[in-house]
Amino acid sequence: MSTLSNKPIGVFDSGYGGLTVLKEIVNHLPEYDYIYFGDNARAPYGSRSFETVYHYTLECVEHLFSMGCELVILACNTASAKALRTIQQKDLPIIAPNKRVLGVIRPTTEVVGKHSKTRHVGVFGTIGTITSDSYPIEISKLYPQLKVSQEACPMWVPLVEYNEINTLGADYFIKTNVDSLLSKDSNIDTIILGCTHYPLLINKIQKYLPEGITLISQGEIVAKSLVDYLNRHPEMEQRCSKQGKIEFYTTDSIDNFDKAATLFFGKEVKSKHLLLKHT
Ligand code: DGL
Known about the structure:
Elements lengths: L8 E5 L5 H10 L5 E5 L11 H17 L4 E4 L2 H6 L1 H12 L4 E3 L2 H11 L4 E6 L1 H6 L1 H9 L4 E6 L3 H6 L6 H17 L5 E4 L8 H6 L6 E3 L2 H14 L1 H4 L8 E5 L3 H12 L5 E3 L6
Parallel strand pairs: 1-2, 1-3, 2-9, 3-4, 5-6, 5-7, 7-8, 9-10
Helix pairs in contact: 1-11, 5-7
This protein binds D-glutamic acid.
The site of D-glutamic acid has 17 residues, from helix 3.
């Protein structure tokens, strides 16, 4: 197939968090075309039900398919935890048997065992990701000897979505959740930032962590895992177009998106608006 046809790689998140993943993907694979899709009008997903997250995610994935994407990365742990498996197993065979949707949880769990020396790890995530138990379940398959403690941080995504990162309110909520996780297990030496929004809060998270604890952000992990996936799947690699173009779409205000996304992505962002059925 011609590499000139428009077949970008889709990168999806409920809002701005997936930009932390896109940034690393573009660093590793600059030659490909990308569409970033933030469902900001319906963010946060983290406190929504399984059914709602599944329906929202499927609707966004179908949109990305209709825009030419053959491969979509759910750069969102909540969507990966609550929607990915159903989309892969139930929907894809019917709606798009040759297209692929990948998540962020599995590649993250693959690396966590290499970091922890105490074999005690922690996970910060949204209510949806934490109550799904996706991390403990996936980690136990690869590293059954690891003890996993989790902490849901429902206020952290709104702090990013409303750009309240540098406020005293952010300090309060971050310190509360950090202390709470460490009170569950004081031997934790490695913590997964199990939400793609959280790297945007990393300075404050580090401020309240004792020294010697490694924080694992997903951007680079997911980017390397995508490099590996494309190497192992030349049939997909050849279908992705390569003109180095990136387009941004949001379901909410483009002015707000452009301001925040330019800050988070580190380059000027000019988005387009997308109206979905249920927004
Ligand atoms: N970035 C999403 C994640 O990784 C945030 C989910 C939300 O919208 O609450 O889980």
